[in-house]
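Entry:
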Amino acid sequence: MIMKLENLLAKMTLEQKLAQISQCNAVYLHVGASDDVTGPEQELSLKKEEVVAVGSTLNYSGAKEMISIQKEHLHNDPNQIPLLFMMDVIHGYRTVYPIPLALGASFDTALVEECCEMASEEMVLGGVHVTFAPMVDLVRDPRWGRCMETTGEDTYLNCEMARAMVRGFQKSGKAAACVKHFAAYGQAEAGRDYNTTDISERTLRDFYLPAYQAAIDEGAEMVMTSFNILNGIPSSGNKWLVKELLRDEWGFDKIVISDYNAFREMHIHGYCATEKDCAEKAIQATTDIEMMSACYLQQIPTLIAEGKVSEKQIDEAVLRVLRLKEKLGLLDNPYLYADEEQEMSVCLCEKHREIARRAAEKSAVLLKNENVLPFDKNKAKRIAVIGPFADKTMLGQWHCHGREEDGLGVFSAVKRMLPNAEVFFAQGCDEKINATDCEPISEAVELAKKCDDVILCVGEDTYMSGEGMSRAELRLSKAQQTLIREVVKANQNTVVVLFCGRPLVLTDIIDDIPALVLAWQPGTEGGNALANLLFGNVNFSGKLSMTFPRSEGQIPIYYNSYRTGRPFEAPYGSWYQDMPNAPLYPFGYGLSYTSFAISKPEISADTMKIGESLTVSVDVRNTGDRSGETVVQLYICDDYASLVRPVKELKAYQKIGLKPNESKKVSFEITEEMLKFWTANGKFEAEIGSFTVWISDSSNVKDGVKFSLIN
């Protein structure tokens, strides 16, 4: 097969090779084949013959269009090389499951893998060959809109989720996963998307890089570079990042693709004076595919003529693209698994809806419950479902081909689940982020007064978080805050259901709320999942994948911060005059309808030799009257090291289920690998010395035990 690809490459002109490593929007392929090329000429500065020759495309509407575009493309391509079709299948194709930040809160890698496998099955029938997922960017700033697309603030959890997503998307062998955004995109200053990233190599290696490497080690077929700079150099043209680290150090020999228009944006960054410079920097960094700009097509011939770039470099990039097309089977069957009829029957099938519903149930987090939940479905006669999101299907920004009409809002779901109860709806206030007035509030308040149970649905709309949707203030709108206070005054038996794509600042209203459920953006089956949770058909088991701050002034805030020499003492300590250092809700936190007691850890030995391991165990007991699941979390601190270490780090977890009064011994093996970090020697290694270990149900730990690592 290598010979076949090399023979194919030998037949291609330079222009055809450059087209293979160029990508444009699917709509331009239709336009490019016609006489009207205003669209691509305006956006990409492409000629008609360049548009129809590109090697891959993105953003189209399903199998029917894919087949049409592919036929059109092959008609115009003398080498008969099919297009690769790529799409942002982030949390579902047509059956939409919860946003990745919510999936992180499930602490359930098997479930996450199942979700991605389901999405992959749907998307390949729709003609998608590559998904721009998983996004594994670690994030510590909830102002950043793309928090919703990550699995949270913890390195270990992100690594586990990255592996699970790659396994799920690629399990069938019919599709490829593209891990993004390489690298440190989630560290944008001030939480503003696309903004500057300034980060030490030590922090980069210890916290931000591991999840990318985990996805690559799991077999991800592609890597996407990020928009940001790293050490002053935009990622797409960053030779140290792509060539030296990703390829030479990590051994990644597959496709690297830029993000949308990122080549030309190196000029806007002030790094490249011309588009020719952009092309040279990118190819020297070994970034293969240029997305939505034409620097390679239009500038590489000149660079080769000038001796600044060799055609061999182009050949290497093209071969990586051809290898993926061959691996997926495109060279033998340009249409592969695209099937309009199958796409319609498999998407939204009951099996897929069940997976999405289960994911929404296990991702939801119970943050507060003062004897309100669960509602008794046998006694509830009159139920009010109130709020701007009370009857909306909350899909999340990257819902691909999902539609609101595919699912039910909370109001409709509760009404269907309880046909013998009276279920009422009131909007209460506007959904806009800056809404201040509550004209319909009187209707909502009166409704709350006459009902047994009240479900109040507030938060962020689908497009209030996501790409480009950064926020300086993370509080609910004035209108929503007023609605919460007035409805709760009218009926204390109220649960607030919070829809959002990031942690919000709830300090203004948390004392007014008797029960609080974090639903995130739960997807197609979110309404049904919430009905099950609120009325006790299902118990809560989700834990926070990101810290909830008390104030925007605490940001960035995350559980595994470095220790300081003056932690809390006043007045000359690391503290605030006007609020505690602690967040409102910490990473790993989440309640249940039952309660769990975790004993103090017992450790198998107080010393551990390099290369060996020890075991730490706890007894976990369900002390309530309902069955439930909890996430037992292992945290470790390196007490004294060659470099200051975090106060604690998650190193393992187990999700266990227990019946009332049932107990289980939970054990973790501590290995040398868990203790490694990038030391002052510039090596990834464990250092001898003392360590503290905690086992808890959140990052708010106590009752640790110690051991020493020795030679």
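The CA atoms of residues 532 and 538 lie 6 Å apart.
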